[in-house]
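Let's study a protein:

===
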Amino acid sequence: MRFKPLVLSIVLVCLAAVALPGLARCAESDATQGERIGYPVLGSAKLDKLLKEQGKNKVVIVSFFASWCPPCRKEIPQLVHLRSKVAEGDMLILGVSADEDMEELSKFLVRAKINFPIYLGTDDLFIKHEVSSIPKMVIYNSKGEVFQVVEGLLPEATFNGMIDYLLGNAYE
């Protein structure tokens, strides 16, 4: 009888040794998985640092999107076109994905011929920027001030007009 608790303890330790590594893998965040396959994670502190270091004296667009979102699928090509037309010295575009399926995200980005950095957003970034729906763009002027927050898909002519205004008519 007194061996029963000892045997039970040994069995539980053995089960834990087998199960815990598997549970740890299951608990691994999508962001960590994303980093492993090439998508860096972007939190609010890292975004602030990017804006200060890389966005200085540039128009900056931060686009919150997901590959499964139909309006996002329309917006991303506009950003790809914009990136190809405007010099990197004048504009910084950052894509922040809300995707959980890294394989689908990768396929979408290849199809979209993405030409700007893509990050996986953290919860604190989405909370700070009050992202409750996508697509959402935060557009900063060259002074680093928020110029416009756009929720939903903006008509292309309106979007181009805003960018033209911010760049001082440098955009075609």
Notes: The first helix runs from residue 3 to 27. The CA atoms of residues 12 and 85 lie 62 Å apart. The chain has two domains: 1-29, 37-167. DSSP finds seven helices and six strands in the chain.
